[in-house]
From TrEMBL:
This is Acetyl-coenzyme A synthetase. Catalyzes the conversion of acetate into acetyl-CoA (AcCoA), an essential intermediate at the junction of anabolic and catabolic pathways. AcsA undergoes a two-step reaction. In the first half reaction, AcsA combines acetate with ATP to form acetyl-adenylate (AcAMP) intermediate. In the second half reaction, it can then transfer the acetyl group from AcAMP to the sulfhydryl group of CoA, forming the product AcCoA. Mg(2+) binds at V548, H550, V553. It comes from Sanguibacter gelidistatuariae. It is an enzyme of class 6 (ligase). It catalyses: acetate + ATP + CoA = acetyl-CoA + AMP + diphosphate.
Length: 661
């Protein structure tokens, strides 16, 4: 039997020899210097205490950095007090930066709104007064169900200002998903809107809220007392007098003065639900002081933020953790000027993002591999029409980025000079954990490379032994970090069981990883996406990467389908680049690509079947739903597709495959 804990056949990823050292000019001006690693290594806790004091304003200074006596529940900076909204907004005004633009909003229809830090302070204070007047007190939960609007940021900060943990539910989730999240958190108030603009039309949001809190037989009455409704589209809405309140009317009537509620560092800042592969969603709990510290620290160093001159744009929705840490808390605590955009990258045309970059002279762009690959599929000529020379740092997050997509991002978007930071982290980690540092690290296409200064990560085998360079296994975090989750809302046991029981006393991330000969870390996808074919472990990512490296292929998704003989067999779904798609013969494509994978990785990795499709099923956060593809691959009825961004995709795939190759 082969060694089962070693993902095999990673040669095509690990023979990546291209590296891109920082230019002297970039290195000279960079926030990060090599000494940062040395300082953190010399005094782990002292390093974090320094960051907390330098980057965050405390009402009462902390005297203790870490209390790990109740592990795995950490307490960071526990005797300090602070307020997250004060840090994100007020202190910039107090320190004379009130006129700086905080948010540059671009609506999908093309409407814009510019909000300075001073204006943001007034809006957040008003909203905090409104929430208090509705009976929301410190510790009460508020659900936010909104599109990407200025009000979404204001709503989150207003909650933080009064010490009420927010639970943002992505606007694309269904009424049922919203209902279960409201119930789990026993929230008092929902903040929503009439609707939002998506792909050129107004799409309603409030009906889902009405449905989520309507009485349902056999279920206890909803905990929701009030619904605050932002008017975005002006569409008709059903109204429950007494319960429903217009946001704009309430804010207009509210006082602009508000004193922030100072909270302990360990006071809950937010809950964010994330789905496991099965079971009910987990409410990941984050607290205030440690989270803010690491959000600000990572944002400053990983993106090399110069708050006076940069224009930062993270394309994530506030419904995901990336929107929490890298749209709201990180950038605002650092006093950044940022763009927020309501819509999709192709509304009204496929150059919309690049048009926004040109218009606002965006200098730091943070987005996801799936978006990069989509733009790659649309063709170089689209970004080619715009002036992207303002871009100086490019970020990637959410899934492993294929070397070819990385190279495209660097060449076409970054003009062959902007450093790319491939950032690995999770909802649970709260902030970036593994990433190159621009100006210090020589970057490698496809690798997240190095734990940040202050973060201790490793790759271990089944028995928790660190693997040598060149080896593969599981990614773990061996030391507590400030932004780590403090639990799963209402379920301490599940928290311990999910993350801390696989390896005693260390955090199990659920990702497969490999260390290359330089000790750099390569993420290989979730361990639940790792396939086992005839006793060999194969990474879905690796095969996808091999497929995408063929000139015909724009995008690929690979699943392991159950197989009586070999355990699993590899099934690939590919989207061809448009120039090849027209007259491709499926049989010939399949033969060609199977051989290509065999050549890139080895015969063991050859997909049993390769199916040419026109779309892939993706969640609204852009993750490919392999579970649904596995259903197709195993000739099953396709399972629950309700969290897909576009629910018609599965019908399209299934109908296109009526006669499997
Ligand atoms: C994956 C998103 C490879 C990983 C911030 C992780 C990545 C999961 C990367 C968390 C990356 C995120 N390279 N894989 N740079 N970033 N992942 O909670 O599998 O939505 O466990 O947080 O995304 O997803 P989540």
């Amino acid at each position: 039997m082969p060694q089962d804990n070693q993902p095999t056949g990673l040669e095509n990823l690990l023979h990546e020899t291209r590296t891109f050292p920082p230019s002297d000019a970039f290195a000279a001006q960079a926030n990060a210097q090599p000494e940062l690693y040395e300082r953190a290594a010399a005094d782990h806790l002292g390093f974090w205490a320094e960051q907390a004091k330098e980057l965050v304003t405390w009402k009462t200074p902390f005297t203790q950095t870490l209390d790990w006596s109740d592990a795995p529940v950490a307490r960071w900076f526990a005797d300090g007090t602070l307020n997250a909204a004060y840090n994100a907004v007020d202190r910039h005004v107090v320190e004379g930066r009130g006129d700086r633009v905080a948010l540059q909003f671009e609506g999908e229809p093309g409407d814009t709104r510019t909000v300075t830090y001073a204006e943001l302070q007034r809006e957040v204070s008003r909203a905090a007064n409104v929430l208090s007047s509705l009976g929301v007190a410190k510790g009460d939960r508020v659900v936010i169900y909104l599109p990407m609007l200025v009000e979404s940021v204001v709503a989150m900060l207003a909650c933080a200002r009064i010490g009420a943990p927010h639970s943002v539910v992505f606007g694309g989730f269904s009424a049922d998903a919203l209902r279960s999240r409201i119930a789990d958190a026993e929230a008092k108030v929902v903040i929503t809107s009439d609707g939002g603009y998506r792909r050129g039309s107004a799409s309603a949001l409030k009906p889902a809220v009405d449905e989520a809190i309507a009485p349902r037989e056999g279920a206890p009455a909803s905990s929701i007392e009030h619904v605050l409704v932002v008017r975005r589209t002006g569409q008709d809405v059903a109204w429950t007098p007494g319960r429903d309140i217009w946001w704009h009317e309430a804010l207009e009537a509210a006082d602009v003065q508000h004193t922030p509620v100072w909270v302990d560092a360990e006071h809950p800042l937010f809950i964010l639900y994330t789905s496991g592969t099965t079971g009910k969603p987990k409410g990941i709990l984050h607290t205030t002081g440690g989270y803010l510290t690491q959000a600000a620290y990572t944002h400053k160093y990983v993106f090399d933020l110069k708050a006076d001159t940069d224009v930062y744009w993270c394309t994530a929705d506030i419904g995901w953790v990336t929107g929490h840490t890298y749209v709201v808390y990180g950038p605002l605590v650092n006093g950044a000027t940022q763009v927020i955009y309501e819509g999709t990258p192709d509304s009204p045309h496929q150059g919309r993002w690049w048009e926004i970059v040109e218009k606002y002279k965006v200098s730091i762009l943070y987005t996801a591999p799936t978006a990069i690959r989509t733009c790659m599929k649309w063709g170089d000529e689209i970004p080619g029409k715009y002036d992207l020379t303002s871009l100086r740092v490019l970020g990637s997050v959410g899934e492993p980025i294929n070397p070819e997509a990385w190279m495209w991002y660097r060449r076409v978007i970054g003009g062959d000079k902007a450093p790319i930071v491939d950032t690995w982290w999770q909802t649970e980690t709260g902030a970036i954990m593994i990433s190159p540092l621009p100006g210090v690290t020589a970057t490698k296409p496809g690798s997240a490379q190095t734990p940040l200064p202050g973060i201790i990560a490793d790759v271990v085998d089944d028995d928790a032994n660190p693997v040598p360079d060149g080896g593969g296994g599981y990614l773990v975090l061996t030391q507590p970090w400030p932004a780590m989750l403090r639990g799963i809302w209402g379920d301490l046991e599940r928290f311990k069981d999910t993350y801390w029981s696989r390896f005693k006393g260390i955090y199990f991330a659920g990702d497969g990883a490999k260390k290359d000969e330089d000790g750099d870390i390569w993420l290989l996808g979730r361990v639940d996406d790792v396939m086992n074919v005839s006793g060999h472990r194969l990474s879905t990512t690796e095969i996808e990467s091999a497929l995408v490296s063929h000139e015909m292929v724009a995008e690929a998704a690979v699943v392991g389908a159950a197989d009586e003989l070999t355990g699993q067999s590899v099934v690939a779904f590919v989207i061809l680049r448009s120039s090849f798609a027209k007259d491709a013969d499926p049989e010939a494509v399949q033969a060609l690509l199977r051989n290509h994978v065999a050549k890139e990785i080895g015969p063991i990795a050859k997909p049993r079947r390769i199916l040419v499709v026109s779309e892939l099923p993706k969640t609204r956060s852009g993750k490919i739903m392999r579970r649904l593809l596995r259903d197709v691959a195993e000739n099953r009825v396709v399972g629950d597709a309700s969290t897909l961004a576009d629910s018609s995709v599965m019908a399209l795939i299934s109908s296109g495959l009526a006669a499997p190759a």
